[in-house]
Amino acid sequence: NRKVVGGMEVYLGVLPAETIRARHSAGDPETLMHGGIPSGEGYYHVNISLIDRKTKAEITGARVEARVAEPVRGGESKVLEPIAFNNARSYGNYFRMLGTQPYTITVRISRPGSSRVYEVKFNYRRY
Questions:
Q1: Which helix or strand (DSSP H or E) is residue 86 part of?
Q2: Which residues face 40 on adjacent strands?
Q3: Spatial contact of 94 and 34, defined as CB atoms under 8 Å apart
Q4: pTM, 2 dp
Q5: 3-state DSSP assignment of residue 23
Q6: Which distant-in-sequence residues (6+ apart) come within 8 Å of 50 by Cβ?
Q7: What pLDDT is recorded for position 13?
Q8: pLDDT-derived band of residue 27, with 50, 70 and 90 as boundaries?
Q9: If DSSP codes are grouped into helix, strand and coil, which group holds residue 33?
């Protein structure tokens, strides 16, 4: 779950919302991010980490959007919000992914101070 584009290493992480709910108490920062953990089944937290390929420094202040889509139901797009977790910074939001069909996660990134938009695609399948 790593791609390289525009001098960046782009890492994808996907975690079931149920796991976040089970590991954290109400009021913990993780339960409050992105407006709270969605209720219902099939929600996943999509996380993108950006690393400068040359300096290996985290890239902060970027604009990151993701589209999570599958062939039958289509998909949804969201801005990924900056988050801090275990002294690391990344970008994330919740998406609903039902069934075991393959999903395409398309990420669009604008680095701070640049108008250029970079795009990477990940294939994801939940099991």
A1: none
A2: none
A3: yes
A4: 0.89
A5: helix
A6: 8, 9, 10, 11, 58, 59, 62, 64, 90, 91, 109
A7: 94
A8: low
A9: helix
